[in-house]
Write the structure tokens for this entry.
Amino acid sequence: MNDSHELQLHLLRHAHAGDPSKWTGPDSARPLSEKGQSQAVRMGLFLADAGFLPDLIMSSPLVRALETARLVATPLALPIVVTNALAMPLDLESLEQLLAGAGNPRRPLLVGHDPDFSMLAAELAGVADLPVRKGTLLRIDTRRPLQAGSGLIRWLLPPDLLSIATEG
């Protein structure tokens, strides 16, 4: 059996969470701002309307990521698997281990943080720099095992675009 398979990797950076320097609690407990909540709700509704159906949603346990995941997953009627791996430094090797440990999903949606998501996206796409802004969802098609430069960015959906779409 060939272990290599197609992967539609969806990376969703947590939505806006305000200025970390103005937050007095532990960074892991920093919640979404009102702007971030609105971004995540719009993303979830947009994805549900588009018929988006990942086979797994995994989230960092940090409050801002988990809130984002919950607001996006609710209209999709999908559960969330919380994993500490998405709150730690994430590279291709640790992502490969995470996916293997999750049953090798083919269309996972991972909700997490930067700089990890920007570095992962750039490495998979084979480019020097690929900033993933807060609240942005991107899809990278690749094969497993994961290799640098093996990915193709299929789409990148910034939260600002959804603001324009819902205003019109």
Summary: The CA atoms of residues 6 and 143 lie 5 Å apart.
